[in-house]
Design brief:
alpha/beta, Rossmann fold, five-stranded parallel beta sheet, 15 strands, elongated
């Protein structure tokens, strides 16, 4: 167990012991080794009188609070995260001061079992855990409360194999005997025969219909400890189920946000500098803990204004191939202040550039709003402030704009729309030598011409972002080294 434990995790448990904080890791101890390696949350039940000391300890160790989005937080439950510097993993402490549990969506029961769990401790390595008998009581009640609504059933049946393995690990003869004794002390009103039936229904397992009937009886026995009435529990549970499903459809897996707020994090750089690879890695890393959205500012989705022109774009490219954006930019000397705007741009190119500016403004304004509401938005590419730069204004505002008032109007409109785009919170500029990017591009399934990669490489070196922190990261080294540096940079920014 100790060999795979994260340094941040071992430091946490050492401090808990040193500071005399009364706690236990109170559930899912059958996979404690994976938990200590950072694969799942650390579910800690902490004595309420130790709450202030516990929070100070977490702050000392670099843990930061997180909040739940969309709904009122559960009472007596808090979330904290810290970066394990060695592995680059985020450690998530899910702290409880009371046993708020039951169904996973609403946690609609407060079970008065804190003293039972904290008073019957054993030791697994360096971690305090409840005795198997006390953990078994909580597990059986939790699992049956997950059988009381359709939304909860969908979730528990999805992970039913894990339920079977956990109950098999917990339900030794010794643990069952201990559980029977503890149940009489801590839940004297609960029918002991019903508990045995509930446990056996998980061990066998019993048919689903029978488990549902037993679950209804368990719910009736625990009705005195409910946080909500049945109607409100069903409504809140359904609402949260729909919200969870919508969150997953958006590509995120968690409903948490850093207490300090969300952020827009832009990844910029030359062609084949590693943007897609790094974005995918960061998305998986952050998305397992927080609400994360991923967007592509280089290829923004169409809006009502641009959907028809964008549908016609492939046909226009075929009809007038000499007016493709990349070719026109090269002819106009894009990125060269002396040549920008000194010769007239084709009107088709001008209209296309303005529509692209519009779509980017819409996309990035929405991203800014999402980050203000707690989401972490990962953005592939971002407009630079200088004219002619990658993903920025291409029409050269401020010049005489040869060709008339229409071209000048298009150039000014494009520039205004780019100015209205909110700035990102952090820019990560990925760099790699030209030869490396050329070689990477040639190995792609859809490679670009060398001339295009060369042009993008030159122009990416001139990117400018005013009043925004920019962190340059060299990707010409082993992937794990670059990834670890990016994780540190992002976590520092959050």
């Amino acid at each position: 167990m100790a060999s795979s434990m994260l340094a941040k995790v071992s430091g946490l448990f050492e401090r808990l012991d040193a500071d005399g904080i009364r706690y236990c890791h109170w559930k899912s101890n059958w996979i404690l080794e994976e938990t200590l390696a950072g694969a799942t949350d650390l579910d800690l039940l902490v004595e309420r009188s130790n709450a202030s000391s516990f929070r100070k300890l977490l702050q000392d160790l670099g843990f930061r609070p997180a909040i739940e989005l969309g709904f009122a937080p559960y009472p007596s439950v808090e979330h904290y995260h810290a970066l394990d510097e060695t592995s680059g993993r985020l450690v998530h402490v899910h702290a409880y001061y009371r046993v708020i549990s039951g169904d996973s969506l609403t946690k609609s029961y407060r079970l008065p079992l804190e003293a039972m769990l904290l008073g019957n401790l054993t030791r697994l390595g360096i971690v305090n855990v409840p005795s198997k008998g006390s953990e078994l009581i909580v597990f059986v009640l939790r699992m049956h409360l997950k059988h009381t609504t359709a939304a909860e059933l969908a979730l528990v049946l999805r992970d039913w194999k894990k339920v079977e393995r956990e109950v098999s690990w917990l339900a030794s003869e010794e643990a069952r005997t201990e559980a029977a004794t503890l149940l009489r002390v801590w839940l004297p009103s609960f029918d002991a025969r019903l508990f045995d039936a509930a446990l056996n229904a998980l061990l066998a397992p019993a048919p689903l219909w029978k488990r549902i009937l037993i679950a209804r009886r368990v719910r009736a026995e625990l009705r005195f400890f409910a946080r909500y009435g049945r109607a409100r529990t069903s409504i809140v549970g359904l609402h949260k189920f729909v919200d969870k499903a919508a969150t997953r459809l958006r590509g995120s897996r968690k409903g948490l946000a850093p207490a300090g707020g969300g952020a827009v994090i832009a990844f910029v750089g030359a062609e084949a500098s590693g943007k897609s690879t790094m974005l995918h890695a960061v998305d998986r890393w952050l998305g397992s803990h927080f609400t994360v959205k991923r967007i592509h500012a280089g290829k923004p989705p169409s809006t009502p204004l641009t959907v028809l022109p964008n549908l016609l774009l492939p046909a226009l490219r075929a009809l007038v191939p000499d007016q493709r954006s990349t070719l026109v930019s090269a002819r106009l000397g894009a990125g060269n202040d002396e040549s920008m705007g000194k010769q007239p741009f084709p009107l088709l190119f001008g209209v296309r550039s303005v529509l692209l500016a519009h779509d980017r403004r819409v996309l990035l304004t929405r991203a800014f709003g999402s980050s203000a509401n707690g989401a972490i938005v990962l953005c592939d590419r971002y407009p630079s402030v200088d004219s002619g730069a990658l993903d920025g204004a291409q029409l050269g505002p401020g010049h005489p704009a040869p060709g008339g008032l229409v071209r000048r109007w298009l150039a000014d409109l494009e520039a205004r729309w780019y100015r209205e785009i909110p700035p990102p919170d952090l820019v990560i500029q990925l760099t790699a030598p030209l030869q490396v990017t050329l070689e990477r591009n040639r190995t792609r399934t859809k490679s670009e011409p060398d001339e295009y990669v060369l042009s993008r490489h030159v122009r990416s070196s001139k990117l400018q972002f005013e009043r925004v922190p920019v962190q340059k990261v060299d990707t010409n080294r082993p992937l794990n080294e670059s990834t670890r540096e990016i994780r540190r940079v992002i976590w520092d920014a959050l």
